[in-house]
Design goal:
754 residues, alpha/beta, 11-stranded parallel β-sheet
Length: 754
Amino acid sequence: MERPSSYVTLGMNQPNPMKKNTALMKKTLSNYWPVLLVALGLCLFSAATHGASVPVILDTDIGDDIDDTWALAMLLGMPELDLKLIVTDYGNTPERTRLVAKILQRAGRTDIPIGTGIKTGNDSLAQERWVGDFDLSAYPGQVHADGVAALIDTINAQQHPVTLITIGPVPNIKEALRRDPSIAAKARVVCTGGRIYKGFENGGRPLADWNVRADAASWQALVAAPWTITTSPLDASEELVLRGESYATVAASQDPLARIVMENYEHWTYRSHYPRDASSILYDTAAVYLAASEQYALIQTLTLTVDDEGHTRITPGGKPVRCQLGWQDRQAFDALLVQTLTGAPRAARHAEPQLVQDVLEGKRQEARVSWWGFDPEDSTAYLQEAINSKVQRLILDRQPSAWITRPLTGVSDQEIVFEAGTELVALKGAFRSRGDCLLSFRECENVVLRGDRPDAGEPACIRMHKQDYQSAPYEKSEWRHGVACWGCRNVLIQDLAIEQTGGDGIYLGTAAEQVPNRQVTIRRVDCNANHRQGISVISAEDLLIEDCRLRHTSGTAPQAGIDFEPNHPADSLVRCVVRRCTAEHNAGTGFQICPQFLNSTSTPISIHLDQCISRNNQQHAIHLCSAPESPPAGQLRITRFLAEHDAMAGLSVQFNPFNAVRIELEDSILRDCALTDQFFPPLYLQGLEADGRPAGNLHFKNVTVKDDRDRPILKIRDRKGNGVQSVTGDIILERNGQRTPIIVDDAWLETMRE
């Protein structure tokens, strides 16, 4: 952010090179040409590389002067700049983060991470009326509490040098350099800051530039670091005002970026200080432009130092800094800014711009993602734009190679269809945040995510890179899911393979105020080799999971095929049906039900496992572990179930009192379970240890246990001596070719005690 001219300075009584004072320039620069040539080459390398997006980080004090908002919108509209992270800096950074998050959500760019930088004040923002009561906790994108750490990590994660755009005071940068000085070798800085000559004419002595003088020590650290710096001081940026037709075009545009800018401008506290037909001074748009190109700018390299008052002075032996001292073509810059905010550059880069335009105008209800474009290295922008079009049916069409992406955010009322054989693959080196999911839906409704069923060959696939996430430089996490839904309604996920995620294949979580997912169907999905679970169900009502494979889960506990595990007493597991699903070769349990965080006041659970198979899992086939204190009520019904060769029990029940969850096991077979474990038999029942009630409410009907080992088939562990109650039914034991019917009564149960 820049402040008006009464606030700024970069030197005192300094001659103007625009008036051809070449003697001073030659004297100042003569000893620095080798250094400057290297710096110049580094600074221009990215801008001169056509066809490749430049990785950038934005460090901003957005929310005071409105120019930061214009700059962010401009940056979002420039495909040649690949925005990796936005970090809020200086002042009330948590509030600045809320503003950034709302802008990104409105722009459909919640794939861009946000970092909350160093807080230096509590003042309210000049754009607080636009931010309103925006709830950051419900924001679907990634927000880093430690923005400085996120900045360091992002720089270190890139394969190519990063352009760090700073458009305000820079305490974040000073702290980042303190923590990791090596970042200066991996980035260049493009900034707005300082005043070189403007205002010093005729002996003028204006104050130092706000961006610098607000925290001069931080700017001293920035200038002292061994990276190259390009700055747009007030000499060039103070003249950036859109007027006349240029301003009118942005004001009238319905492009999302233009609407975001104009809404903020109209709600800005200082709007009345500026003409109705013009913008305020758009200082910070200059830095965004210089990150991509210098075609319209006048650049000279000067050797500068920053004094304790924030003045940046030309000093022999100072830091060589590339300074924009004016414009070669201001009209061309204005036209670029207008086009960027009103959508023209994005339309021009689409593979099929007319078809895309038809979609945006509502003329087509079906579209192909390739109309927006395809990049074999990173198609995130095309994918997210296509999703954000909200076209009713979006086809992810098969390409010569996989669709590579960073995190994506879904929308309501959309069907996404994967053509047979299509792959949607996580970008290597991305997904650094602990909660980065490949495809996220928050409080969406009427969502379909499905693959075309192939007559032969491989199904459509969503794939991440689990092994990468399990070691440095990634932070340990279990939440990098493949598909995640929070508080969604009427969702179908069907005919897909989801594999190698850094969390769950599919995650069904709660939205704000514990809103569950409702009317969700997951059908014919193969969840393979995921990190934590094949499917996690935190809260759901009217859930159907059928004909799914849940296999090879391994990485972090519970490592189950399916895990029903609420996080809060207000979560729901109501009318959940799992039908004809197979859980096999998982490092944990096949089917896990763990309502440990529910209690007796929670809505009773109702789960039905029908015609399911558990095979060769390293723990139990089915495991219910209820709350040790105040367990919930409800029903777990298991019918036509087959468990075979699971390492632990076919059915394990812990902490369920006789008057809590009713467990029914009917028409089922437990075959050769717990053969490799010395503690568990095929059936296991453990009593409560914090409650005096007997364990139980377990009922068998036409259950066959095939077990050739000479041992009890049920172990009752009752360390508190509370006993068991309401355990009934009939079991057939098949052992060494003999079939023995068992009536489950008190006498038989007594023989099963540990």
